[in-house]
From TrEMBL:
Highest taxon of the lineage: Bacteria
Keywords: Signal
Signal peptide from the UniProt entry: 1-23
PROSITE patterns cross-referenced by the UniProt entry: PROKAR_LIPOPROTEIN
Organism of this sequence: Ruania alkalisoli
Biased segments, Basic and acidic residues type: 92-110
Disordered: annotated segments: 81-111
Protein name from the UniProt record: Secreted protein
Length: 283
């Protein structure tokens, strides 16, 4: 059997579709149009030339990064909604010639990784700053929906002076079981952020080079990755936080190893993630 790697489609945090709303609460969702930015041009800078204004992660942890909006309007999004890779067991006889080129598959020779470019026009960035600060500052409470199957969304906003973050259960699903009135209002404000991104991000689809490699998750006590693993011991990288960034001199080799070999049984609960430029990782 051969282990390859494919991107995990965790669902992009900003793809907030309309879901069926439970009977206990109906939240009106207005149709939005892109902001008109007359005479404005897309940013001419590259990812990472400006600091991350807003980062969004979705799934099992705040390390599952899917979207980065930089302060200059440059945007990078993880293709298929995840920057993580997951082992796939394939039989050599079942593998087709083009299977390595299927969408979301990280190939051994793919140095670009999962990140793809996009942008917001300047007036949309200004509007994003306003709605994000309105939604995230002041300690809003978002509550937890009475549905354990729903994902978490993690947002971190940094305007260059101060930061704010939020962990929101079931964001954008339309469910509101168990939420108070104030928690629903807080979610309405946060949905403005998601809606703004959804209708205003222009995807250009260019591949973004991997800037760093992050390892996160859990490793059983006393366990270790295979002896051929090129990086430092996983327990050393993870530390007490359960997340660490690999040294630069082994990052490329570690990604290649992960693509070709996998992380073995001991690494079943670990995630190897490609980070875009300007993102420190493990935040």
């Amino acid at each position: 059997m051969h282990q390859g790697f494919r991107l995990v489609a965790a669902g992009a945090a900003i793809a907030m579709g309309t879901a069926m709303v439970v009977a206990c609460s109906v939240i009106g969702i207005e149709q939005q149009e892109p902001i008109t930015c007359e005479g404005e041009s897309p940013p001419a800078t590259a990812p990472g030339e400006s600091f991350p204004l807003l980062t969004i992660a979705q799934g099992e942890s705040p390390w599952a990064l899917v979207t980065v909006v930089y302060a200059d309007g440059v945007v990078v999004q993880a293709e298929n909604g995840s920057s993580a890779v997951e082992p796939v067991t394939e039989s050599a006889g079942e593998r087709t010639d083009d299977s390595a080129d299927s969408p979301g598959r990280v190939r051994p020779d793919d140095a670009a990784g999962p990140w793809r470019t996009g942008y917001l026009l300047p007036c949309a960035v200004s509007e994003l700053r306003e709605v994000a600060e309105r939604a995230l500052y002041g300690g809003p409470e978002f509550g937890r929906i009475d549905r354990p199957d729903l994902d978490w969304t993690y947002l971190r906003y940094d305007n260059g002076v101060s930061t704010a973050s939020a962990e929101v259960h079931g964001h954008g699903t339309g469910f509101s079981d168990g939420l108070s009135w104030s928690e629903r209002r807080a979610r309405d404000a946060l949905r403005e952020v998601s809606d703004l991104l959804r209708v205003n991000i222009v995807s250009t689809g260019e591949a973004v080079p991997i800037a760093a490699v992050q390892l996160d998750g859990e490793l059983p006590d006393g366990a270790a990755l295979p002896s051929t693993w090129p990086g430092p011991p996983a327990a050393e990288v993870l530390g007490e936080a359960g997340c660490g960034v690999l040294p630069e001199d082994v990052a490329e080799e570690a990604i290649r190893y992960g693509v070709e070999q996998g992380l073995g049984d001991a690494g079943a609960a670990l995630n190897l993630r490609a980070l875009p430029p300007g993102v420190a990782g493990c935040e």
